[in-house]
């Protein structure tokens, strides 16, 4: 049973009590870097049952925040740029800890222990980009090409960091993400971009 519920992009993030999560947004270790344009993904989540580390980014394309949605070329290009930048920045944050780079001490208290070691075959790192869309069937007709493009753009960084074989990249519509076991639920009452947090369990340090 979930003990936490956080609104983000028209969805509720609700990890189980046995799982750990973190948010870099507003974290004291990360905030100084955000001033230099380093971007964060919405959630880090350790899925204890399957021993997987997840970085999750949520986007709401179901409302008028972008009236043209993914049907517009410029919209797709901006989305891809944004997601790729977030992935690269977050991989560098993790690499700072894995390889004892100058910001290791500043950042390592922001993350649960499972994220402080290089991903392995037994405990991979999954990057999930989840789009809340009005028409999931229509989205799925183009999702594969978008996901392939994301993977191609990100695999260079993964190779340089020595984690390519143990890192996965996924692009999901919100319903597929829920079916795949991500701790998400549609928030019918919320408006895009609102956030609310109830009593919950932060990541162990």
Distance between the termini: 22 Å
Number of domains: 1
The largest pleated sheet is described as: 5 strands, mixed
Number of strands: 8
In the predicted model, the low-confidence regions spanning at least 5 consecutive residues are 191-201
Number of helices in the DSSP assignment: 5
Report the helical percentage: 25-40%
Q: What is the element string, with H for helices and E for strands?
A: EEEHEEHHEHEHE
Strand content: 15-25%
How does the overall form come out from the CA principal axes?
Answer: globular
In short:
By secondary structure, this protein is α/β, with parallel strands linked by helices. It is built from 5 helices and 8 strands.
Structural write-up:
The protein contains five helices and eight strands; from the N terminus they run βββαββααβαβαβ. β4 and β5 form a beta hairpin. About 5% of the residues have low confidence. α2 packs parallel to α4. It has 205 residues and is of the alpha/beta class. The protein has one domain. The protein is globular and about 45 Å long. The protein has a five-stranded mixed sheet. It has a three-stranded antiparallel sheet with strand order 1-2-8.
Annotation keywords:
five-stranded mixed β-sheet; three-stranded antiparallel β-sheet; alpha/beta; 5 helices; globular; 205 residues; 32% helix; single chain
Write the layout of secondary structure elements.
Blueprint: E1 6-8, E2 11-13, E3 20-22, H1 31-34, E4 43-47, E5 52-60, H2 73-98, H3 104-107, E6 125-132, H4 136-160, E7 167-173, H5 174-179, E8 184-186
Parallel strand pairs: 5-6, 6-7
Antiparallel strand pairs: 1-2, 2-8, 3-4, 4-5
Helix pairs in contact: 2-4
């Amino acid at each position: 049973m979930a003990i936490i519920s956080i609104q983000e992009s028209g969805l509720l993030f609700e990890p189980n009590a046995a799982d750990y999560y973190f948010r870099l947004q507003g974290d004291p270790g990360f905030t100084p870097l955000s001033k230099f344009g380093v971007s964060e993904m919405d959630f880090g989540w350790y899925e204890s049952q399957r021993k997987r580390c997840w970085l999750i980014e949520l986007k709401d394309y179901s409302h008028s925040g972008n009236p043209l949605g993914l049907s517009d070329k410029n919209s797709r290009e901006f989305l891809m740029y944004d997601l790729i930048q977030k992935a690269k920045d977050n991989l560098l944050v993790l690499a700072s800890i894995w390889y004892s780079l100058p910001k290791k001490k500043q950042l390592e208290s922001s993350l649960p222990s499972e994220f402080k070691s290089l991903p392995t075959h037994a405990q991979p790192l999954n990057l999930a980009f989840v789009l809340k869309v009005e028409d999931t069937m229509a989205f799925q007709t183009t999702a594969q090409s978008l996901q392939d493009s994301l993977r191609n753009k990100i695999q260079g960084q993964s190779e340089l960091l020595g984690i390519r074989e143990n890192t996965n990249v996924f692009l999901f519509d919100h319903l597929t993400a829920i079916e795949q076991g991500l701790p998400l639920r549609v928030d019918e009452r919320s408006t895009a971009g609102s956030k609310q947090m109830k009593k919950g369990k932060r990541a162990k340090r």
